[in-house]
Amino acid sequence: MKRRKRILIVDDEASLTRLLKLSLEGTGHYEVRVENESAAALGAAQEFRPDLILLDVLMPGLDGGEVCHQLERQAGGQKAPVVFLTAAAKKEEIDKRGGMIGGYPFLAKPVDLEELVQCIEKHSPAPGQWGRI
């Protein structure tokens, strides 16, 4: 049996992370771990070893940019790809930039499951193929 891709979702909105986890796991292609506190993301990434991280931008404590920076430092540059989730930018604005802001892929909330799956597949390697943390 083929290993499912591991996705770590870091977002302070528990209702959103529950919905994303259920939806992604429902496809049968993903194993999902959720963290609702940004500070917990660092330990979760080390322990879970995700193939891709979905990371909210605006969170209490550490914001998504700081979490991403700390993940890069902790992993020595060999971290899983990060896709940022944000309610701070509209879908049209992100689409105008080709889905990328500051060199990272972005998705606007609320996110459509089909669009999310396409983004995950585009930006994540085959399971186990990434120099993961």
Summarize the structure.
This protein has 133 residues and is of the alpha/beta class.
List the helices and strands and how they pair.
Elements: E1 5-10, H1 14-26, E2 30-35, H2 40-48, E3 52-56, H3 64-75, E4 82-86, H4 91-96, E5 100-101, E6 104-108, H5 113-123
Parallel strand pairs: 1-2, 1-3, 3-4, 4-6
Antiparallel strand pairs: 5-6
What attributes does this structure have?
Rossmann fold; 38% helix; 6 strands; 133 residues; alpha/beta
Report on the structure:
This protein is an alpha/beta fold and 133 residues long. The protein has a single domain, classed as Rossmann fold (3-Layer(aba) Sandwich), CATH 3.40.50. It has helices at 14-26, 40-48, 64-75, 91-96, 113-123, and strands at 5-10, 30-35, 52-56, 82-86, 100-101, 104-108. A 6-stranded mixed sheet has the order 2-1-3-4-6-5, sandwiched between helices. α1 links the parallel β1 (5-10) and β2 (30-35). The model has no long low-confidence stretch (mean pLDDT 90).
Shape: globular
Low-pLDDT stretches: none
- SS summary, helix count: 5
Largest beta-sheet details: 6 strands, mixed
Number of separate strands: 6
CATH topology: Rossmann fold
What CATH architecture would you give? 3-Layer(aba) Sandwich
Specify the CATH homologous superfamily. Response regulator
Strand order of the largest sheet: 2-1-3-4-6-5
Report strand %: 15-25%
Q: How far apart, in Å, are the first and last alpha carbons?
A: 24 Å
Q: How many domains would you count in the coordinates?
A: 1
Question: What is the structural class?
Answer: alpha/beta
Mean pLDDT: 90
